[in-house]
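Technical annex, item 7. During the second reporting period the consortium partners agreed on a shared format for inverse folding records so that results from different sites could be compared directly. Each record opens with the tokenized structure and is followed by the designed sequence. A conforming record, contributed by the partner at site C, is shown below for reference.
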């Protein structure tokens, strides 16, 4: 087996309705994966049967395991801990990958063989029938830990980690006590926090299917803006930031001194006291979101 090929990590739970299309898109990659590892979190539908039929005709090994039953984030960390040494790609059960996804990621990560690197890309958001709705926007500002601590720009269904990043994530996942709310956000924070590379592909590489059952959907337009304002105003967003920081604290010895200091300051901030956004020049990608975050901090909502 070529150890430069990418192992795909997929978590599942009652995914029978859409998983067949996702498995077919992984099989159709122009650069096939080294292996597909699936961790199922207690499916009661035909998910296991569909995976079993696919395994018989797949051109690569498929390993199916039972998840810890503690939610999607913990399930992905569980998979990271079991993955073989080498690069890994994260996959959701209900998307469809474009044929060049793994090849593009591998090519763009190749220059970073000597340091941890995370690849992420844009997505074409679709309805349940894969009819395109819109493409996710390109980044306005560079990815950095000062952005990662308050915003995730690396959706899990686009993430590919090079060998060094996968090793780092595997070691750090073993240190985490309470799982972070969002595994993909944690990976963006971890890789940027150690001074690794975050490689952003301006081209879309997947169809991101919206079907009403998404754990955390794409959102768009006025309803999404209102939802974001609500979680900002009611303290949900601030709670996520604190919980993500607390999960990172377990691996603070791996972070740069500046990143470790930011994480500890946020993790130690008591509820009801504003988080130190201004002191560390933390930023979100969109100016309107940056303004809203600063206003919420001044009002004691973060």
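Designed sequence (site C submission):
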């Amino acid at each position: 087996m070529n150890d430069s090929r990418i192992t795909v990590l997929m978590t599942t739970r009652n995914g029978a309705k859409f998983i067949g299309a996702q498995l077919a898109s992984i099989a159709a990659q122009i650069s096939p994966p080294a292996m597909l590892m699936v961790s199922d979190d207690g499916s009661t539908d035909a998910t296991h049967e569909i995976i079993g039929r696919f395994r018989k005709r797949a051109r690569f090994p498929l390993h199916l395991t039972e998840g810890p039953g503690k939610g999607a984030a913990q399930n992905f960390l569980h998979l990271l801990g079991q993955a073989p040494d080498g690069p890994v790609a994260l996959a959701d059960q209900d998307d469809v990958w474009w044929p060049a996804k793994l090849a593009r990621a591998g090519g763009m990560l190749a220059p970073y063989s000597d340091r941890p690197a995370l690849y992420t890309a844009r997505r074409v958001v679709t309805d349940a029938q894969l009819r395109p709705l819109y493409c996710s926007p390109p980044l306005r500002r560079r990815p950095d830990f000062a952005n990662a601590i308050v915003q995730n720009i690396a959706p899990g269904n686009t993430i590919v980690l090079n060998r060094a990043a996968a090793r780092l994530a595997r070691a750090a996942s073993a240190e985490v006590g309470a799982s972070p709310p969002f595994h993909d956000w944690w990976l963006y924070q971890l890789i940027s926090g150690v001074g690794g590379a975050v490689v952003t592909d301006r081209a879309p590489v997947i169809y991101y299917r919206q079907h009403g059952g998404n754990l955390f959907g794409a959102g768009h337009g006025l309803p999404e803006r209102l939802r974001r304002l609500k979680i900002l105003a009611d303290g949900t967003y601030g709670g996520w930031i604190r919980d993500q920081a607390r999960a990172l604290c377990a691996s603070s010895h791996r972070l740069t001194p500046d990143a470790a200091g930011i994480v500890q300051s946020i993790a130690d901030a008591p509820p009801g006291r504003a988080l130190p956004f201004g002191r560390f020049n933390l930023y979100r990608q969109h100016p309107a979101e940056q303004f809203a975050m600063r206003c919420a901090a001044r009002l004691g909502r973060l």
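The mean pLDDT is 91. The longest helix spans residues 236-249. All partners now use this format for quarterly exchanges.
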